[in-house]
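Notebook, p. 212. Picked up where the previous page left off. The plan for this session was modest: take the two constructs that came back from the sequencing core last week, fold each one, and keep the raw output in the notebook itself so nobody has to go hunting through shared drives later. Recording the first one now, exactly as returned: residue sequence, then the structure token string.
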Amino acid sequence: MLKSYQKSVKDADNELVHLYEIRDSLSERFGSKKSAIQKLGITSTVWDEIGKLANSLPLKQGRHRGKALGALRNAEQTELDKARKSVTHLIEKYLAHLEHDKSTDNHMHSKN
């Protein structure tokens, strides 16, 4: 996740592609979108935000440039900010999940 975020900073032409990789890695880590949403304690709307920006909009920095029907445009600064904020939130939720698991494990081991 951190490597993808670093790539997004260094490779502005593909920023949304790299940011989307973060969500993709969470889906892979938890086995599915549904499981990731549940384990991270987020809504589908929160999960779908980066997908909308990276996949659906006809943006030059997006993932599906060749599938856009019209002309591609550069992402607006507000869209890029929203994408960054979206994946930062996902990373924060994942870190909280890891901390929770760690504290649960420690609690379980201290009882034994």
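Okay, moving on. Second construct, recorded in the same format:
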Amino acid sequence: MGPPALRTTPSSPAIEEFRMTLTAAEIPGYLAGTWTVDTIHSHVGFTIRHMMVSKVRGRFTAYTAEFTTAEDPLASHVSAVIDASSIDTGNSMRDDHIRSADFFDAANHPSITFASTGIRAEDGELILDGELTIRGVTKPVALALESPAFGPGPQGGTKSGFSATVEIDRTDFGVSYNGPVPGGGAVLGNKVQIILDIEASLQDPKED
């Protein structure tokens, strides 16, 4: 039989087992080692509510990240550094405003960082806990993590990939600028959804 699904019904007996542990054998092709993120084939993006009726989407184009998959998958670790000035929302004037002191204050806080503090299996899903720092303010976050995938690279070597999402309140990080909307409301929402789609290359395989 294959590995237990990450999303099962509350009545499924697989949930009780998955909540407590996740073994390497349950992840097809799992490899322990150190991985470097391939930024060409990865996406670090976000969405935020705009004018209370739609969403603005953006991404970061410059970042570095590395993660280590441990023999015990739940002991794995990830860290990342994002260049705050690499914001790209498809509008240069808006991007310059986001770089300014009204938002990221990239001149004084050039980096957005993340460092994991643990991985846990909860209610049939994987949660990546960590500390996110924006504008010099560090807060704990919990990302919903899809089970990683592993496979051969097109030019040799080994690739892995995963996706993760988390919703944060930007005002928790001191990013509180807003503008009024005639008749009531605000230009921007406070909730920001962060979306990660990551591909990485194996650098340091661990030998048994």
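Notes on construct two before I forget. The mean pLDDT is 86.
Flagging for discussion at group meeting.
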